[in-house]
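Sanity check

After download, print the first record. It should look like this:
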Amino acid sequence: MTIMKRHRSIAVLLAVSALASCDYEKNAVQDIVAAPPASSIRFFNFGLNAPGVNFYANDTKMTAITSATGAESTLGVGYGGVGAGGFYSGIEPGQYTLSGRIAATTDKDLPISNLAANIENGKTYSFFLSGRYNTTAKTVDAFIVEDPFPPQIDWSRAHVRFVNAIFNASPMTLYARNQLTGEEIAIGGAAAYKTAGAFTPVPNGVYDLSARYAGATTNVLTRPAVSFSFGQIYTITARGDITIAPTTACAAANITCLDNTTNR
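Expected structure tokens:
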């Protein structure tokens, strides 16, 4: 799996490099033998009503979608989407301004977020657009969290962590109840908006998930029948608007739910 992640990162990096080269000589020779970047990052668009975006690190385009014509799509990564198909993109350590820029023809490449972030050597990160999109200012919140999952694969269990991306929610704790045994596990502690809990070991199985405010017994968000497989690592993210009735799935646009994305 580590090798697969490395190869996927290289593939995404090469795709990014190819996009960047379009601004230079069309037939320029690409360097495909250099060592892959030491760090990695992936990008989520969880900004309510936000337009589709391409993600950038400084002025380097990190994600883009190709249309059926071979040209870059003007749709970008929409709400609830993850750039690069959910894979991590390689990135060199350093100081960056991370942004989501409008993919549509109107306001093309306008940044709707700018977040200064220090990418450390050998570390892995997730970047989120979040909150409610301001249609007048054309801005949205953004934050970044480190993804410190275990470097070695643990084939005896899964690892799960919780991210709170709901701008108007109080700190919440995620719980996972095993459908077979009935045992309930707290996935880390209470996570405030723009923060993440620790990766927590979870036995292989099917779980009913629930998020609750600190000290409360009432569920704020739920998602049933989520499978956690041994050797895998997952991020469960609360997204949406807490005043809107949540759903138990994340299929529709601009809804409040518990998103499930595999890290590895």
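If your output differs, re-run the checksum step. Summary of this record's structure: Helices lie at 2-21.
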